């Protein structure tokens, strides 16, 4: 545990539920942990005890990527952990594949088609998922992503080829989506079982991220907006090439600073913890430090996003990690550029660079 983690309280210590099993973290809230085939090797999913129109059952929050392994784990959960009750709805925090990949499959009852229920999501997340699943720009790969990152200095032939060959990345992990959904908006109150959960939207990590906060129970399902060990990825991708996602993310963090410090935070990655305001302060300090590094580097000489990556990420990166590293480097450059602290220009080589 690093120094920052020591400032947080982990009420369940090193407890981690095995894939296909659940762990009770709060009254009516069960924790699932599913594997991911990435450097970030897991995702936390949640089951909330529910009742809709007199029918008792469960709300699923987030789903995992589409894979036979995760489907098998879910089938075990369906058979052993639901107390003989059905899933009544599926709610996703946002459009990234590890959160929405199996939404259609779970909505239609898994392999045995046990039920047919509604997907709940914000409009920004649902429509973004539909666009990316259609192949009209996945942010993570394909010709447009290669062109976008090439403009910002990722020009070596090997990286460009790998990016072009990732055109089906999103659709492979999200092969189907429900054709209908129920819309969630900021400050909506969703009654799940005996508790009222408030929708807390956030921006920067994804188009319209939905966290769920039950003030009465003192529980926050934070999705990817507030994570205990790592900082949330905030990236500029090709669909919005002049975006300021870091500015949006830092603004969104303010919504968590009014929550009680002893709120039990149930994040999408990492372990449940208490200390939400402490963690938000840590995240702000982290980005302040990165912005200072970027500003210093661009004061010394003009820098592209590719030049900034090794300053921010001091380890070897595969192409999956590199897309997020490039996007995040660009997010820090854009915040400074759009604030008037940096200017950008395109060199004779066609690469965009930023200078003080």
Q: Any key phrases for this structure?
A:
seven-stranded mixed beta sheet, globular, 356 residues, alpha/beta, Metallo-beta-lactamase, Chain A, 15 strands
Radius of gyration: 20 Å
Number of helices: 11
Counting structural domains, the number is 1
The assigned CATH architecture is 4-Layer Sandwich
Which percent bin holds the helix content? 25-40%
Cα(first) to Cα(last) distance is 37 Å
On the 0 to 100 scale, the average pLDDT is: 96
> What's the CATH topology label?
Metallo-beta-lactamase, Chain A
How would you classify the helix and strand content by structural class?
alpha/beta
CATH homologous superfamily label: Ribonuclease Z/Hydroxyacylglutathione hydrolase-like
CATH class: Alpha Beta
Task: Give the strand line-up of the largest sheet.
Answer: 1-2-3-4-5-6-7
Question: Could you describe the largest sheet, including whether it forms a barrel?
Answer: 7 strands, mixed
Give the H and E element order. Answer: EEEEHEHHEHHHHEEEEEHEEHHHEE
How does this structure look, described?
The protein is an alpha/beta fold and 356 residues long. The chain has a single domain, classed as Ribonuclease Z/Hydroxyacylglutathione hydrolase-like (Metallo-beta-lactamase, Chain A), CATH 3.60.15. Helices cover 33% and strands 22% of the residues. The protein has a seven-stranded mixed β-sheet with strand order 1-2-3-4-5-6-7. Helix 5 runs antiparallel to helix 6 and helix 9 crosses helix 11 (319-338). It is globular and about 65 Å long. 46% of the residues are buried.
């Amino acid at each position: 545990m690093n120094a920052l983690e020591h400032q947080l309280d982990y009420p369940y210590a090193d407890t981690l539920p095995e894939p296909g099993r659940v762990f009770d973290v709060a009254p009516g809230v069960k924790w699932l942990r599913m594997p991911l085939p990435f450097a970030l090797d897991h995702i936390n999913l949640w089951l909330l005890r529910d009742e809709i129109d007199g029918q008792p059952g469960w709300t699923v929050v987030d789903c995992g990527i589409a894979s036979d392994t995760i489907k098998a784990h879910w089938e075990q959960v369906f058979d052993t952990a639901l107390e003989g009750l059905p899933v009544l709805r599926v709610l996703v925090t946002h459009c990234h594949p590890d959160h929405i990949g199996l939404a259609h499959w779970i909505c239609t009852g898994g392999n045995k088609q046990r039920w047919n229920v509604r997907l709940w999501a914000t409009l920004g997340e649902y429509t973004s998922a539909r666009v990316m699943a259609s192949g009209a720009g996945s942010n993570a790969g394909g010709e447009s992503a290669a062109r976008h990152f090439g403009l910002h200095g990722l020009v070596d032939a090997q990286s460009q080829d790998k990016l072009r060959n990732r055109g089906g990345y999103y659709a492979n992990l999200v092969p189907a989506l429900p054709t209908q959904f129920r819309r969630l908006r900021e400050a909506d109150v969703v009654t799940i079982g005996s508790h009222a959960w408030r929708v807390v939207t956030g921006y920067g990590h994804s188009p319209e991220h939905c966290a769920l906060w039950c003030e009465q129970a003192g529980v926050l399902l934070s999705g990817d907006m507030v994570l205990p060990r790592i900082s949330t990825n905030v990236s500029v991708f090709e669909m919005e090439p002049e975006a300021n996602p870091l500015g949006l993310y830092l603004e969104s963090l303010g919504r968590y600073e009014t929550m009680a410090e002893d709120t039990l935070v149930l994040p999408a990655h990492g372990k449940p913890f208490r200390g939400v305001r402490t963690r938000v302060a840590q995240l702000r300090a982290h980005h302040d430090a990165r912005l200072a590094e970027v500003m210093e580097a661009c004061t010394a000489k003009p820098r592209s996003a590719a030049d900034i990556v090794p300053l921010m990420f001091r380890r070897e990166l595969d192409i999956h990690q590199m897309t997020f590293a490039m996007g995040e480097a660009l997010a820090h450059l854009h915040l400074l550029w759009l604030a008037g602290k940096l200017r950008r220009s395109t060199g004779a080589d066609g690469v965009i660079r930023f200078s003080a």
